[in-house]
Amino acid sequence: MIANVIRLAIALACVGLWLTLASAHAGDAPTQSTRSAAEIMDILMWNREPVGGPFALTDQTGHERTDRDFRGRLMLVYFGFTYCPDVCPTDLQAIALALDELGSDADSVQPIFITVDPERDTSAHLAEYVSLFHPRLIGLTGSADAIRKVADAYKVYYAKVPLEGAGDYTVDHTAYIYLMDRDGNYLGFFPPGTSADRMVEIIKPRLKEPAR
Ligand code: NI
Question: How does strand 169-173 pair with strand 64-66?
């Protein structure tokens, strides 16, 4: 448990230097969680509030997707951003590996990547990114408000952090991998750095449970 807490803390420090043309404009909707990282970690670790809920976002092909599209499958939901230099790619690779290990059982599991940086992560940009990891990975983006709503529902902490240089920023964020059942209900989360083997170990027995 101590190791997990340290990993979570490290995942919050997702910092890199990235130049972007999409600079922050004064007057943009604030791009961050409504609660602190500590508060959100406490809610998750002690199951203080429900996790997850409905969403309506746009996928990497430009199509509207809602949570209802994935009923009947387990959902593996991960929040991050494509410019994240370290934690996001590592966890997405582990998710991809877990899907490969599951073989044909993976058809019943839907991996979903939701950006916490909708300003830079357009559908077109997500299309390039998700295909680097797994053909079945769906990338979702939306308005700043829509992203904040879904992130708050999943108890995800994220905050834009300005970097040196005009318009540069990174996004601090918690990096939990959420496992949802076939009805969209929360089952639990994997901390950042979880191995593919561990994910498979937890997911496999859940695949035998039918949707209600
Ligand atoms: Ni990240």
Answer: unpaired
